Amino acid sequence: MADIESLQQALAVSPDNVPLLLMLGDAYMDAFSLEEAQAIFEQVLAIEPGNPMARLQTAQLLDLRGRSSEAILRLEQLNAEQPVFAAGWFLRAKLALGEGDGKGAREFYDKAIMLEAALASDELLKRIREAGGRKNSTPPPNPKPQRDGSNQAGAYFDSDFDDDDFDEDPFADSDAELELEFERRPDTDFKKVGGMESVKEDIRMKILYPMENKELFQAYGKKAGGGVLLYGPPGCGKTLISRATAGEINASFMSVGLHQILDMWIGKSEEKLHEIFELARRKAPTVLFFDEVDALAADRKDMRTSAGRTLINQFLAEMDSESAENDGVLVLGATNAPWHLDSAFLRPGRFDRLIFVPPPDEPAREEIVKIMAEGKPVSGLDPIALAKRVKDFSGADIKATFDQAIETALAEAMKSGKIVPVTQKQLIKSAKQVKPSTRKWFESAKNYALYANQSGFYDEVLDYLGIQK
Q: Would you say residue 221 has pLDDT above 80?
């Protein structure tokens, strides 16, 4: 308590000192004084609304109180707006592990360690592996110093490698294994995606018609395929619409995660990326989907290591329509923060077509409500009325609404020992408690659309907000 008292005394002199406030909030958390800690972090956010550490600790407090769904939702927002904040990815890995998602935990852990190697945790990595996280995709925690003093991703040594780290030759990936890993056909099409009609029509015009009429386009010297970037708030269906796009043209669908590319060996990440593109070319027509593509295509000026810049250069070379044979390969990238991409990705021949994926419209929200209610004891559900109540909600926000209502009903069921149905009234009450995550995204997007939109990339955001250009 002495630390808390001394910090309180210092803050009495400088009440708006954010570093001191963060230290006091951490001290309260160490003392497990959660209410006091929450008040401090809220004070920080009132001074600096985007402060990543305060937002991180707020998510951690929610998890400690058993509200893991809301904590994960907040972390998704933080990761989208602060993609280079390593601690955000690290906590998200922990929460994903708590939800039993070993694969997701491994992907988030990899992102955190790529950004800040000092966060590496043998204990956490072991638990992720036991939960089904992929092996050999994360560098060990002791990077070998380079001659220039930096820790270049790719060259490492570690006396504490697990035995299974050397079970296979790291340079002997089999083409057959790679094909098996990605071998799948999409299980959905536009008919199974509720609402989003304007997005579907945009995709038809920019993607489907060129792929379905190759000969006509070839007569004009145009190739089918290329790169399309889907951007918009998190949780709004960019992955689903990408899978449905592949289903519309009966193409192979390859969803590529960061953990499938990053490797601890020098040059191996670039080699894996090239192999994935080669497989897509062999199996054309193919939709090659990169979720959260800003993690792989970040601005090279922000890269701390030359290894990161080399991987980005390889990505650019694979996408370049002038040098790569990508006829029949459609590269779809999804991101919540297109302004963090290296500008070279947005030039013609790469991600030269941008599609804005807004929050679900009313028909889509109604469909999401019906899907969320399936298989659950829900009574008196009025999907149309609830869809009107959750305006501006993303699909993830609607899920959080159901999660809170279900937790309330479950608490009553635990007391009575009987199934207690989730009512429309409970869902409406939960909807009032969940704040639309999309609004925070639009606050950031609006600034970029107004003040960093010389090329007109974000005109659709202004149109959605009703702002005249």
A: no
